[in-house]
Amino acid sequence: MSPPLTGIRVADFSRVIAGPLASMHLADLGADVVKIEHPVGGDDTRGYTPPDYHGLSGAFLCYNRNKRSIALDLSVPEGRATARALIDAADVVIENFSTGVMAKFGLDYESVQRPDLIYCSTSAYGRTGPFQKRLGYDPVVQAESGFMSLTGHPHQEPVRTAIPMVDVSTGLTGGVGVLAALYHRKRTGQGQFLEVPLFDTGFAQTGLHATGYLLDGTVPERLGNGDYFLHPVGRYASADGDIVLAVETDAQFRALAQALGLSAPSDWGTNAGRIADRARVDRALADVLAPLTRLEVLVALQAAGVPCFEAREIPEAFADPAASQALVSVPHPDLGEAPDMPSPMRLEGSPARAPQGAPLLGRDAAAVLREWLGYDTERAARLRATGAMGAAEEAA
């Protein structure tokens, strides 16, 4: 079976993380995603080095698998005309420039719209409203949405998540939005404009904490590795390393107490009682875990049905045989292979595309121009001669 989006063409003007993540998920599902980049440097993340692999940055590899690349200079009339032709041949456009940039080039939705076109914009603050001209990135939006205030340890300053979660959630939401728009088009024949601002996504990611505040004004405190609604949940030290516990039910807590020989007062028999006495529960756990090795703790608790595992650093996690399906060297058209991870979506009837490494800058121009626009090699050469299109990048 073919991947589910086989035959869908995506003209991808996005860069950095949010937009490229949305288009990468579409590419994983079989869409022909053409990344339209500036001839000088291309996507910003190409320069996010080290680390790199033969000149391709780890960040670029992470968010751009299964795509093709063409390098167009939109400041050159022929470059803009070629970009417009690609849009006219596409089912979907994705862009995340600052407000006004695509309009300056005559490539905004109002300029290129047609009845069946789906156009996804993932700006920082949206194309309308009081903040439309502001620049914004994940760290700023994490802070101003209140999302960052939820992360960190009690009585310490808030901490930004190491993974750019607002960017990531915006990319995921944008991808879902495009899928919904494609389904709508299949039913009605109509495309549409859709917008996923980072600012809105940041607020949405505050989730149940936002709901609690709106219900009764509760301001959540930072709990480090703990959980607002369950206890004990968190990272605890054993004699030779840390473990992470996630006790979800009273039955699991009783099993934990029996397995570890923990003397628990009656009021710890309910989750509410344990939450009300977090500090004492944690001290009691620390005392019983301190003389035990990590393996002893894991064997005892897992046998008792208590969710737990060792707290790992990246090298430990990647060395686990269970990670073998998620960690691979994928084929690369120019480098032979490249480190990457396949899509985590496991569709049985229409599987995701076999992963291919992120492209070198401009490497697919000739094929894209021929397949999408019917241009021959002479016309492609003229585009290069005018400076409208960059040459393909050489492998390092």
Task: Give the topology, please.
Blueprint: E1 9-12, H1 18-28, E2 32-37, E3 52-53, E4 56-57, H2 58-63, E5 67-71, H3 77-89, E6 92-95, H4 101-104, H5 109-112, E7 118-121, H6 138-144, H7 165-188, E8 192-195, H8 198-205, H9 207-216, E9 233-237, E10 242-246, H10 250-260, H11 271-276, H12 278-289, H13 294-303, E11 308-310, H14 314-319, E12 328-332, E13 336-340, H15 365-373, H16 377-385
Parallel strand pairs: 1-2, 1-6, 2-5, 6-7, 7-8
Antiparallel strand pairs: 3-4, 9-10, 10-11, 12-13
Helix pairs in contact: 1-7, 7-8
Structure description:
- The protein is an alpha/beta fold and 396 residues long.
- The protein contains 16 helices and 13 strands.
- The longest helix has 24 residues, at 165-188.
- The model has no long low-confidence stretch (mean pLDDT 95).
